[in-house]
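Q: Fold this one first, please.
A: Sequence and structure below.
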Amino acid sequence: MPKTHGPPHLPPVHQPDAAISQVNPVSAQYYTVLDTTPNVRIISIHAKITWAVTQPTPLEVRVTIDGNLITYAVTNPVSGTDYHAQVTPGASEASQTLGTTNPALYRPFLCEGRSVKVEVRITWAVTQPTPLACRVKYAKW
């Protein structure tokens, strides 16, 4: 049977958070939070957008795991609200949820893969001075 993760006697090693705070984000442009990294276990993903005038929609976090795209999103995010990536079992990989409940309280990790990349973006009609923030807690094996 092929191995799917590191040796069973060695737990994943926590890494420093991967994070960005992008001032004046360009509409629909993805910003890399965690560049493609081998053997990653994502513990949690947090995203936040704060705006002054025009509400962006949607706020999206895109995770590429072993070549598969998973999109976590919230339509009409509330300014300055903390959103967390959540697994929505009945939805497709393209329609996962960014919600205000922190699922890290109920599960040890979000997902893992041999190759992982995390990006974030917002979409809106007018770009304005606005911080777009995203933080990924992860471990490597």
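Q: Good. Now the second chain.
A: Here it is, same layout.
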Amino acid sequence: MKKRAFWQDTLPLIGIAVLLSACASGTKVTRVQDVPDKADAPYKKILIVSLFSSFDARNYIEKELIKQLADLGTDAVGSLSMMDSRTKATRQTYIDMVDLVGADAVVVIQLESLETDAKLVDANPQATYNVWPTYYYNVWSVQLTEYVEPPGVMFDNKIVMATQVYSVSLREPVWGIESQFRIVQDIDSAWDYGVFIEQAKVIAGKLRSDGLIAR
């Protein structure tokens, strides 16, 4: 039975429920599909499709991967640059994008798994002292005020992200990796954009070293 390319079926929109912030560990990459002999790589025009429920996460990773590929001499276009809030993420939408930009390959990035552990952490109390003398020798009045915040929540996120390359001419996947990394964050942390830069560098580097784009 012939394999169906991703644009021949409705693309599943896999959700990403993690805020990419605070401190991220190094990325471990596992190749899950080698490039077959029949692959028509290296590719010169790539459409990047990210499938996360968070629009911001999709936008950030697509933009950073475009930058990384441009630095390596490969032209890439993000799917979000051709979408707005009314555009439906359907099979036909991505078929039209491939035809519009003349892509010879499509890179699809999506969340494969997410494990999150959460725990309460005690806040560090702060105190102020006011000291003043009294009428008595060597006797002082001391006023102590303590400020204690409620306990915070710390998340330990273990994330596996899947990246695949589809050949437009072969109409099937020709390469795939899993990127495993860990992010520790507290609930009030702002997003750390560096996570997207790091993951884009990892993907672009592997595309180049495995011959999917020109070296």
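Q: Anything worth noting on the second one?
A: The domain at 6-118+154-209 is CATH 3.40.50 (Rossmann fold).
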